[in-house]
Write a structure and sequence with these properties.
Length: about 450
């Protein structure tokens, strides 16, 4: 390109950025079209039976993959229906669909999850996992991605992470040993940042109806990757966005947000409040089981706390109540009122997540959420939304549609920092691609 043309091109690009037509950001690659997977849902509600149903089916570019995943959705939906109570007076939900995660240029994982809830209790859940090369339609095994030298590390992670669930209860040692010895047969998915191994909690902790996920960062597995793994598990060049939802769970709203995320093949980070968890524990279980990040926005959302003993008491109470629902405590938090540096200063003992981008959904809902997000969108964006107002549901869909047009990969907060080479540390405040350390 000659000098006058280059100057003109730069001038026009600057005008576009200043006008807000495109966000200002460094050179990062958009997600390939093959991996921009949408899904469609079929929803019913019977006033007579008081049962709501969701079924979500994929629309990938590979019809054979669509057929296989759709058949899995139908199997799990049938399972959910079979576990619904027969009493007509009960309200309930039967749901099945895939949480879709993508990686590299052609790899898509489908965590197909079904569950049955009645009267705010999760009665049953089950899952199937599939990982495909979308170009060929070939279903991948763990051997295609990691060689056998990874098994020692994976056994160690499985034992450590599964034993940490429900800490007041001892895991079934024989079942745990069986999991450690059958790594290659374990259902798995590939997220943008982790190998994830999936299990039923009831296998180790009888009576539990939730799931367990063992996440192993790719940075620990680099030397054990096959050629396919090395080519497909590096997502550091992509535009990344983490949608975060504060103040929930919100009865009804959370279910709709989870559905919107699934239809856009996205995941969310839910910064829940402790106070409503007891009455919305079915939603907390759904968030966790479906593969979203379930984290803390403190127990009471008191944003003027200055007494560390009270902060610590709230942290412990939140952890205790979340453990009772899903087996594990939150691993990071968002401070109420953006008062993050105070929590870091007092040494709350967790990473603290702020945001780069405001959606504006905390208000009346009369603003353009997409325009608001575009104003401060970055190559690594943490987008603040809420989980208690109905306008946030449509707002999330509009924002996800725009992120899809721009080629963003939607990830959880911890995945974003893992991909950017910044594993999260306690008492550190994190933004989109920056951190402030409080010594």
């Amino acid at each position: 390109m000659n000098r006058p043309c280059k100057i003109l091109t730069l001038f026009l690009a600057a005008l576009l950025i200043l006008s807000g037509a495109v966000p200002a950001m460094a050179e990062r690659a958009p997600l390939p079209e093959l991996l921009m997977i949408r899904q469609h849902s079929e929803t019913t509600y019977s006033n007579a039976a008081k049962i709501k149903t969701y079924r979500t089916y994929p629309d990938t570019a590979n019809e054979a993959v669509n057929r296989e995943i759709s058949a899995a959705v139908d199997r799990l939906f049938a399972g959910a229906q079979a576990h619904m109570p027969k009493r007509a007076s009960l309200t309930g939900l039967a749901d099945a669909g895939a949480t879709v995660r993508v990686s590299g240029t052609k790899t898509a994982s489908f965590f197909v999850y079904g569950h049955a809830d009645a009267e705010r209790e999760q009665l049953w859940c089950d899952f199937e996992t599939y990982v495909f090369d979308l170009e060929t339609g070939r279903q991948l095994t763990l051997d295609d991605v990691f060689d056998a030298s990874a098994d020692g590390l994976l056994r160690s992670e499985v034992r450590s992470q599964l034993s940490a669930y429900f800490p007041s209860v001892k895991a079934d040692e024989a079942a745990l040993e069986g999991f450690c010895e059958s790594i290659r047969q374990t259902p798995f998915t590939l997220s943008p940042a982790y190998l994830i191994l999936h299990y039923h909690a009831s296998a180790l902790y009888p009576g539990r109806t939730t799931l367990m996920h063992v996440k192993v960062p790719y940075r620990l597995l680099t030397e054990h990757m096959t050629d396919y793994g090395r080519a497909e598990l590096d997502n550091s060049d992509y535009l990344l966005a983490a949608l975060t939802f504060d103040d929930g769970p919100g009865r009804g709203v959370t279910a709709s947000i989870l559905q919107v995320l699934r239809e856009y093949s996205a995941v969310g980070t839910f910064f829940n409040l402790g106070r409503p968890m007891r009455s919305t524990h079915d939603y907390v279980a759904w968030e966790h089981d479906a593969g979203h990040a379930v984290q803390s926005h403190t127990y009471s959302h008191t944003d003027r706390l200055t007494d560390f003993a009270v902060m610590e008491k709230e942290r412990e109470r939140f952890a205790r109540e979340q453990i009772e629902i899903i087996g594990i405590p939150p691993s990071y938090m968002r401070a109420p009122g953006g008062n993050d540096k105070l929590y870091a200063k007092y040494g709350i003992g967790m990473p603290i997540v702020r945001w780069t981008t405001l959606s504006g959904d905390a208000g009346s809902g009369r603003i353009d959420f997409v325009a608001n997000v575009m104003h401060t969108l970055k190559e690594s964006s943490v987008i603040l939304m809420h989980n208690i107002k109905w306008h946030s549901v449509n707002g999330a869909g509009s924002i996800l549609a725009r992120l899809r047009e721009l080629g963003y990969m939607c990830v959880t907060v911890d995945e974003l920092f893992e991909i950017r080479g910044m594993p999260m540390q306690d008492n550190t405040v994190y933004y989109g691609d920056e951190a402030d350390r409080q010594e």
